[in-house]
Design goal:
alpha/beta; Rossmann fold; 15% strand; single chain; 4-stranded mixed sheet
Length: 433
């Protein structure tokens, strides 16, 4: 079997706008690293039972029937990208169309299973060749945070509406479950499943008539609407101008503008006292260096006897430590400045920097895998409408990979999602001596 010569400089992809996607349009020329990447992929394919297809119906290594498929259209470009920047190159190679898979989730699920064992122990030193730290301009300072949020959430309200359910909830739903505990996910059940998630979080925070509620991360306003419908008064914070505009319109249409105030405001800049603080999948955008500030702000704003309820994507603590400070494809293209915490990190941060303590956690990762499946299917089906909004093929492939990669993470347990209750322990009464 003859493989493409890694010493030859691969040609750049066609149809990629270098002004918008400079690192996708540029194919590096790193022959030695490309050769190492090719050998490493062969080892991974053998160990994980992958079918790596090359042009002309050739296989990189023998593969079992029914194996997840990685189909290389431009092997030279693929190996040079991987050789230069590892998993960032893997993602950029997909954006460029260098590779594909008939079942992207199945392939990524296999790769996301026990990721610490993907690269042989003796080859772990290779990470030093390509691993970079996130740029300082993306750290979650007050100035940078708004720019980070703008890059993702201000893409287009119309884009998000193409694949989200009618509640415009961009976070995990909680579906009904079968006797086995498996989520029963369907498009028809989606809005009710999102309301079930929101209502559980509001119940956890004790939100009812007369509650003063602070929401950190407005989204498109559905949680604020549900809270105000209970008789609460809500202040909701966002850094997205697109979300601010649409959330205000949706709240007004619901007849609740007198009970909800949506502010374009950083969580570090708000004052007041609230009976409940709620936040849905916003901590992931804070960044690890600012977790103490984030939880201290919640502590400062929470009234005596108040409750804070968060919904957070989490990962195992050891994987969080291993990935912390690493610049990944997701950070570069999808969520700049982010970091997924572990439950242990949340416990440690709140204990060390606040008077708050984790009083309860409930995980429902399989429900997020199903949420992402429904989003991914709708996004893929509506590709022509995505194009009509002005987003090109590189963007569309980027989002297909992001949604499939995230789904695979939840299917393997590499990622989880939790609803977490934070309270202040009641002081112990002094017993008479």
């Amino acid at each position: 079997m003859t493989l493409p010569a890694c010493s030859l400089a691969p040609a750049p992809p066609t149809g990629v706008d270098a002004r918008h996607w400079p690192d996708v349009a540029r194919v590096p020329h790193v022959p030695a690293r490309a050769a190492v990447a090719r050998r490493l992929l062969g080892r991974i394919a053998r160990r994980r039972g992958l079918r790596v297809e090359l042009p002309g119906t050739r296989l990189l290594v023998p593969a079992p029937a029914g194996a997840p498929v990685l189909r290389l259209h431009r092997p030279g470009a693929f190996f040079h990208r991987i050789g230069e920047s590892g998993l960032i190159g893997f993602g950029e190679s997909y954006q460029a169309g260098d590779w594909d898979s008939p079942d992207l989730v199945a392939l990524l699920t296999e790769l996301a299973t026990a990721p610490g064992t993907l690269v042989p122990t003796g080859a772990q030193w290779l990470r030093r060749l390509y691993v970079k730290r996130p740029p300082a301009a993306e750290l979650g300072t007050p100035d940078n945070a708004r720019a980070n949020i703008h890059r993702h959430y201000d893409l287009s309200n119309e884009l998000f509406a193409l694949f989200l359910d009618p509640t415009l909830s961009y976070s995990s739903a909680i579906f009904p479950t079968a006797p086995s505990g498996a989520p029963l996910a369907s498009r028809k059940a989606f809005p009710a499943a999102q309301h079930r998630k929101i209502d559980r979080l509001l119940d956890l925070a004790g939100v009812g008539a007369g509650s003063r509620v602070l929401e950190i991360g407005t989204g498109w306003g559905e949680l604020a609407i549900r809270a105000a419908s209970r008789g609460a008064r809500v202040v909701s914070l966002t850094l997205s101008e697109e979300q601010l505009s649409l959330a205000r319109r949706r709240i007004a249409a619901a007849g609740l503008a007198d009970r909800v105030e949506v502010r374009l405001c950083d969580y570090r800049a708000v004052d007041g006292e609230f009976d409940a603080v709620v936040s849905v999948e916003m901590i992931e955008a804070v960044g690890r260096p600012f977790w103490p500030v984030y939880f201290a702000a919640i502590d400062h704003l929470l009234a005596p006897g108040g409750r804070a309820a968060l919904q957070a994507i989490t990962m195992p603590h050891e994987r969080m430590l291993a990935s912390s400070g690493t610049y990944t494809w997701i950070l570069k293209y999808v969520f700049p400045g982010g970091q997924i915490p572990s439950v242990e990190a949340i416990r440690h941060t709140t204990t060390r920097h606040t008077s708050l303590r984790v009083a309860g956690c409930e995980s429902f990762g399989p429900h997020y895998a199903e949420t992402l499946r429904l989003w991914r299917e709708r996004f893929t089906e509506r590709a022509e409408e995505v194009d009509a909004l002005g987003f090109d093929q590189v963007f569309r492939r980027m989002w297909e990979l992001y949604l499939a990669y995230s789904e695979a993470g939840f299917r393997t347990g590499y990622l989880d999602v939790q609803q977490i209750l934070l309270t202040r322990p009641e002081p112990r009464e002094e017993r008479p001596s």
